[in-house]
Amino acid sequence: MPKPELLIVGGGITGLCAAISAAQQGARVTLVDAAVNAGTTANAGSLHVQLQSRFMRLYPEQAPNVEASLPLYLRAVREWDALEATHGPFEMVRKGGLMLAEDAEQLAFLETKARREADKGLDVEILDRAALERIAPWLGPQIIGAELCRDEGKLNPLAANIRLQAVARSLGVSLVRDRITSLLIGSDVQLRGETDSYRADQVIIAAAWGAGDLVSGLGLALPSRAEPLHMNITEPAAAGIEHLIQHAERSITLKQLQSGQIVIGGGWPAQSRGNHAVPEVLATSMLGNVALAGRLVPGITGLRVIRTWAGMNTTIDGKTALGRLAGAERVIVAVPGDAGYTLGPLVGRLAAELAGDVPGDVDIAPFSLARFAA
Amino acid sequence: MMSDPVTFFFEGEALSARNGQSLAAALTDAGQRVFRHTGKGSPRGVFCGMGVCQDCLVSVDGQPNQRACMTLARDGALVQRQVARPELESKADFDGKPAQPLAARELTPDVLVIGGGAGGLNAAAVAASAGASVLVLDERKVAGGQYFKQPAADAPLLDAQQSDGADLLAAAREAGAELLGGVEIWGAFAGPLLYAVAPDGTPLVLRPKQLIVATGAYERPCMVPGWTLPGVMTTGAAQTLWRSYRSLPGRRVAVCGSGPLNLQVALELARGGAEVRLVAESAPSPLKRPASAMALLLAGPKLALAGSGMLLGLRRAGVPVHYDTGLAAIAANTDGSLRATFRRNGREETTELDALCMNDGFEPQNEILRLLGADMHYDPAFGHLRCTRTDSLSTSVDGVYAVGDCCGLGGAPAAAAEGRIAGAAAAAACGFATHEDLWSSRQALAGARRFQKRLWALHDPAPRNLDTLPDDTLICRCEEVTLGQFRNGMADDADHIGTVKRVTRVGMGCCQGRYCGPVAARLVANATGRSLTDHSYFAPRVPIKPVSIGTLMATQEALDAKA
Fold it and tell me: Gene3D superfamilies under this entry (chain B) (predicted)?
């Protein structure tokens, strides 16, 4: 096999879209994936744009970075639109997301948030109960209003992942199962994996929470952290919930997939068993998360939860890390940070364009790795 | 024979049932075989008969998701076929959370026994006799398990097997064990901490000092085209219809697969009045293997003679037993009756039937053990996982014992002996000395294991090779995934069962992968050339059985109120 021009570490949504984009540019691409705790394979399919209250509450110090990234989120959902049009269907629905308020204080918070988001170009609106009644009559009676962000949506990540893998294969991308453990920079990049070793002219590290360890020897202190999260799925019901549902104060995402199943998640913790073992589902998260969902949307209480699972979200500092590594320019880091599935296709494509020296349509300077220089 | 007939309504039609009959039995008596249609429009009815497959779901008085096999026919009940995708708005009207959530019961017995069969009841009797507080939970309203299958309500006991079960239940109660029936366990977490729901909706939170898992096994089907048709059911389901409810699965019946249960049930159904057209056994005749048959006789003369008595009984009843014979396909006639094709020495033969019973071995119900992280190992002879245990039947998890078929097939006599040993050990761990004669139990266990080994040498307990099955065979009943789709799903990346699951949706339905999981694990293992381990199967996840959001809300509210 000829040496690939580009080797991508991480076969999640970011790496996959980087591979597709680079292959479309004509590059010989190898994609190496460890198949361990990939956030993409456990993802529940929310397309996030508005500021997530969960994130602002848990990581207040990162909120300014997230807010500054809002335009990137907007670009990212449009990237998904384009992907769906070219490679879909991914069962994508972009009817918007509703962030619910149960009291005046929460509604006031949403109003402030909506103004700031509108300034960043988001299509947002505050709805009162009467307006909600028209589009979401199934909400609990205690909901007094909501912020509607029309840019948000949902898709079936299983469908998207399968389709995009098939696209990558059809473009000649070589998909390899291995866990890369180290990189050595010389006249090219040498990579050592658990089962094999590799060489490539350039490398994109799209390894989410695993990226920090890989670049720690290359002068970059990238604080990529694995955050094990809990999710639940119900049996199917007739179609009824079009929007992505969130809450102004509490952790939740709720949406109905095309299968009719309701997916309930939104950042309840799972118990880590180390980054290389699947996290353990916690009783407190299952009970708390599902009970909250049933309270917000009483129409689902008769449905049965048929499965729960846990997957790794990745956080950095509230902002995407995307750029060439100073002193090791053959290495590009592409880690979207929070809401990685939403941002993945855009960040992946931008990384591939950076690798191919193709002028991109997004200024990536704000996402430079310089802020993590060790 | 049973008093107080009840009248209920199925799709508006008045039907009568005997007191204590399950809905599945009463509907079967009434000739109703289609209980619901899947999202893709396929008809489904009774299949497992024991609350596993989630295929006999009906709505009762507006409450959906009632398993007809586990639900009693109540007077005046309005029963309807389950809608595949119910409306959300109307959902709020039925089930839902109770206006005042029932207070959760937090139970902290010395010894919690899950499963009231041969293993669990013996464990409970021994532990309670020693002085430990013992709670036994069973999913069925009437405990006894699959072997002792107790009659419903006031029906008389059928035979020694049922009266032995009744005696064992009485012994466990007399020893002081508390038995709770109709309890659905949905969560098992480190501790052990278990969550369940009682039949009246009361959330149960269980924190036992010692846990004995005795959850038994469910039946492995003969996966052939048509195995999901109404009228096709497991042999155990047919046996429950007859032994517990005195209902016959149909007039013209055949039994297929491998193992002694098929012979027993064929004889029971024939004596009950069914026209049993044949028993198809995939193993060769014992007459062709006199050495194995003699070994069985030596290992357990009494049971071996009982077995040959069954064969004799079948001959007298005019039921042919065809050896070396496998099921090839099942088709439905327009009137809902079945056409089953059997294959013997390359020749195919078709039989017209009303019901086809299948048992092709067993799969352990090891969900709780796997969730708690108990060590497992694969047994290629039986094609399923076995739980690794010490001599006192404790698992690799502190304070957790496992007995009976949930640890891998061993049969009821072995389960009973294991139960007595584990019951004594669990009581001792709580500080209660037992007077149990452990030596006898160990002898009995060794004898039962010897007998089982010889017994299965005459049958065919390893799973079938699926290579020759046509692509249109369903392997996932719930998501209706075919073998062909699964094979395609493996083509690109068959690295792990989870990967193929995400590609094909195999195992994503309401039975939670119980039927497709073992098959999918083997197909992936074959494709990758890896041997099977615990990790080859779907990752264990809560809920153990589907649980309504209303139940979870009531549990959470009760826990909140306590805090």
Answer: 2Fe-2S iron-sulphur cluster binding domain, sarcosine oxidase, alpha subunit, N-terminal domain, BFD-like [2Fe-2S]-binding domain, FAD/NAD(P)-binding domain
